[in-house]
C-alpha cells in the first residue's frame, strides 16, 4: 500500500486562509507523529496570532457573499463535499489512522459518519424557515427572519479528526456562516485534507479556513476577543471548555460546547445478554475507548453479574492490539504517552483500593502508545476511574441491586453526556431515560452517534446540540419584525 501521506501534498500541509495555502507568517512549523510508532509523519505550519487574525479577515470578508448565496447553491456544495469524501473514503480513512491511531475499520466508519453531516446539512440548508403570524391582540403582524450568526471559530479534538470538524462546518455553511477551524495539534492533517476537498468541489475562498497551531491558547484567545467573531463551537475537555466559555463571555459570543463525559452503562437482570454484550463492547471499545460517549462505568445487576462479566472479559481478551493500518487489528495505539500513563495510573489506583484485574492491566514494552483491553471487577466507589474520564480500553464493572441505587450512582458526576440502559422492560427503560441526568440515552444500543440526531450533553458535558435540525439552529439568529397592519 502507498504512503497515506501521499494524499496531502506538501503545499497543502500549510494554513488554509482565504484563497491561499500559506506558511505561518513566522515561518514556524511543528511535527505530527504516528502514535503507533512515534515516528514523524509530517510537518505543518505553526500559526500564531497574526495568522489567526488573517483567517478571521478572510472569514469576515467572505461572510456577506456566502450568506447571500442561494441556499440551493450552498446545499449543492455540501452535497459535493459528501460525495467527494465518500469517493475518497479509503484515502481519508488511512490518513485518520496514521495521525490518530484508530484501526482502519474504525477510521472508515468515521469517514462515513463525518461525510453524512455534509449530506444531512445539505438537506437542511434549503429548509431554514421563518414565521409570520398575527399578534395575539391584533393590529400588527409578527415576522421572524432567520439569519446566519456570522463568522464562527471552531476548536476540535484529536479523537475524531474528521467528524468533530464536519459536525460544525456542515451546519455552519448550511446556515450561511463562514468558518475558521483550529484542529488539535496532534491530528491536523485530516482537517487540512477536508479543506482541500472543499476547495476542489468549489466552496468559495474564505468560507472554510483552517489554522494549525501548537499555540492554541494565544491564537484562540485572539480570535474570541475580536468583535468580528460571532460564534464559538468547541469540542474537547470540560477543563478547556470552561476556559473558553470565560473568554467567550467577554465578547458575548454564541457558544456550543461539546465537552467531556462519564457514561454509565447499566445492564439490568432482565436484559437480553447477547444484546447487552454487543452494546457494551461498542460503547466501551469504539475508537479504542477514546470517545466522549465511551462507557466509563459498567453497572451490572447482581443476578447477571457473573455471567455478563465472564462473557465480557472473554470478548475483551480476544481483541487484537496493533498498528491501526495492519489487517485484523481491533485496538490501535492511544494518542500519546501521557494518555497511556494516565490510564496506567487509574488502573493502579483501582487495584490499590481493592479492584481485581480479569483481563489486561499491563502496558506493553516497545514503541508506540499501546494499552491492552482491560477489565476490572470489585471496583470500589472511591476508585478515581469512576470519576475521571478513562479515555481508553479499560472497563470497570460494578454490581448493583436496585434501580434507585444505580440511578443515584450514575448521576453522581459533574458530567451528563450519555447513559446506556439494557433491559427488556419498556417502563424500566423509560424511567431510566427520564431519570438519568444526561443529554442522550442509548436503550439496548451501544452506538448512538447519528448526524440526524441531536448530539449533546447537560451539566458540565456541554451546551447546545450538534446534528439533526437543532444543529443548524445553533448557527442562526432570529430577527423579529413587528409590522403594523391594523
Ligand atoms: P482538549 O485538550 O480540551 O483539546 C481540545 C482542543 O482544544 C484542541 O484543539 C486543543 O488544542 C484546544 N485547546 C487546548 N487548550 C486550549 C486553550 N487554552 N485555548 C484554546 N484551545 C485550547 O481535549 P482533547 O484531549 O483534544 O480531546 C478529548 C476531550 O474531548 C475529552 O474530554 C472528550 O470527552 C472530549 N470530547 C467531547 C465530545 C463531545 O461531543 N462532547 C466529542 C469528542 C471529544 P491542542 O491540540 O493544541 O492542545
The span between the termini is 73 Å
Kindly report the spatial arrangement of strands forming the biggest sheet: 14-15-16-13-12-17-18
Arithmetic mean pLDDT? 98
Q: What compounds sit in this structure?
A: NADP nicotinamide-adenine-dinucleotide phosphate
DSSP E strands, number: 20
Portion in strands: 15-25%
- Helical content, roughly? 25-40%
- SS field, number of helical segments: 14
The biggest sheet amounts to: 7 strands, mixed
Shape: globular
Specify Rg, calculated over alpha carbons.
23 Å
Considering the chains and any ligands shown, give keywords for the structure:
binds NADP nicotinamide-adenine-dinucleotide phosphate; globular; 486 residues; 14 helices
3D architecture notes:
Helix content is 39%, strand content 20%. It has 486 residues and is of the alpha/beta class. A seven-stranded mixed sheet has the order 14-15-16-13-12-17-18, sandwiched between helices. A six-stranded mixed sheet has the order 9-8-7-10-11-19, sandwiched between helices. A three-stranded antiparallel sheet has the order 5-6-20, with no helix packed on it. Helix 13 links the parallel strand 17 and strand 18. Helix 2 packs antiparallel against helix 5 (163-175), helix 2 packs across helix 6 (189-201) and helix 4 (104-125) packs parallel to helix 5. The structure holds NADP nicotinamide-adenine-dinucleotide phosphate. Residues 155-159, 164, 182, 184-186, 214, 216-217, 220, 235-237, 240, 243-244, 258-261, 292, 389, 417, 457, 462 line the site of NADP nicotinamide-adenine-dinucleotide phosphate.
Amino acid at each position: 500500500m502507498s504512503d497515506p501521506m501521499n494524499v496531502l501534498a506538501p503545499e497543502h500541509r500549510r494554513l488554509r486562509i482565504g484563497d491561499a495555502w500559506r506558511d505561518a507568517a513566522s515561518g514556524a512549523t511543528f511535527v505530527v507523529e504516528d502514535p503507533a510508532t512515534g515516528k514523524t509523519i509530517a510537518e505543518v505550519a505553526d500559526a500564531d496570532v497574526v495568522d489567526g487574525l488573517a483567517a478571521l479577515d478572510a472569514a469576515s470578508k467572505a461572510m456577506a457573499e456566502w450568506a447571500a448565496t442561494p441556499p440551493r447553491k450552498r446545499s449543492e456544495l455540501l452535497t459535493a463535499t459528501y460525495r467527494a469524501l465518500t469517493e475518497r473514503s479509503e484515502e481519508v480513512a488511512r490518513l485518520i489512522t496514521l495521525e490518530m491511531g484508530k484501526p482502519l475499520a474504525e477510521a472508515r466508519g468515521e469517514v462515513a459518519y463525518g461525510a453524512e453531516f455534509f449530506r444531512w446539512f445539505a438537506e437542511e440548508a434549503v429548509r431554514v424557515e421563518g414565521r409570520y403570524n398575527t399578534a395575539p391582540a391584533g393590529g400588527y403582524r409578527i415576522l421572524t427572519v432567520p439569519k446566519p450568526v456570522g463568522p464562527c471559530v471552531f476548536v476540535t479534538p484529536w479523537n475524531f479528526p474528521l467528524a468533530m470538524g464536519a459536525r460544525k462546518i456542515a451546519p455552519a455553511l448550511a446556515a450561511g456562516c463562514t468558518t475558521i477551524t483550529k484542529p488539535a495539534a496532534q491530528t491536523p492533517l485530516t482537517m487540512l485534507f477536508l479543506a482541500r476537498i472543499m476547495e476542489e468541489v468549489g466552496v468559495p475562498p474564505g468560507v472554510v479556513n483552517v489554522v494549525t497551531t501548537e499555540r492554541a491558547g494565544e491564537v484562540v484567545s485572539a480570535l474570541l476577543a475580536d468583535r468580528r467573531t460571532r460564534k464559538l463551537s468547541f469540542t474537547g475537555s470540560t477543563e478547556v471548555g470552561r476556559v473558553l466559555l470565560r473568554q467567550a463571555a467577554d465578547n458575548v459570543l454564541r457558544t456550543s460546547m461539546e465537552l467531556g463525559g462519564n457514561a454509565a452503562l447499566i445492564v439490568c437482570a432482565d436484559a437480553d445478554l447477547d444484546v447487552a454484550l454487543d452494546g457494551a463492547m461498542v460503547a466501551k471499545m469504539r475508537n479504542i475507548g477514546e470517545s466522549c460517549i465511551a462507557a466509563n462505568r459498567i453497572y451490572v445487576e447482581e443476578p447477571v453479574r457473573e455471567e455478563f462479566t465472564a462473557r465480557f472479559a472473554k470478548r475483551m481478551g480476544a481483541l487484537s492490539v496493533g498498528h491501526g493500518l495492519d489487517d485484523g487489528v481491533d485496538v490501535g495505539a492511544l494518542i500519546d504517552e501521557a494518555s497511556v500513563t494516565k490510564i496506567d495510573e487509574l488502573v493502579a489506583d483501582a487495584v490499590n483500593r481493592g479492584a481485581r484485574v480479569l483481563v489486561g492491566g499491563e502496558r506493553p514494552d516497545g514503541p508506540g502508545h499501546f494499552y491492552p483491553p482491560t477489565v476490572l471487577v470489585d471496583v470500589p466507589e472511591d476508585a478515581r476511574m469512576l470519576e475521571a474520564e478513562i479515555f481508553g480500553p479499560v472497563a470497570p464493572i460494578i454490581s448493583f441491586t436496585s434501580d434507585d441505587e444505580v440511578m443515584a450512582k450514575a448521576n453522581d458526576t459533574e458530567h451528563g453526556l450519555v447513559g446506556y440502559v439494557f433491559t427488556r422492560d419498556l417502563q424500566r427503560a423509560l424511567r431510566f431515560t427520564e431519570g438519568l441526568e444526561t443529554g442522550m440515552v442509548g436503550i439496548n444500543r451501544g452506538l448512538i452517534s447519528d448526524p440526524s440526531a441531536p448530539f449533546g450533553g447537560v451539566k458540565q458535558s456541554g451546551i447546545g446540540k450538534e446534528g439533526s435540525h437543532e444543529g443548524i439552529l445553533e448557527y442562526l439568529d432570529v430577527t423579529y419584525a413587528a409590522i403594523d397592519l391594523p
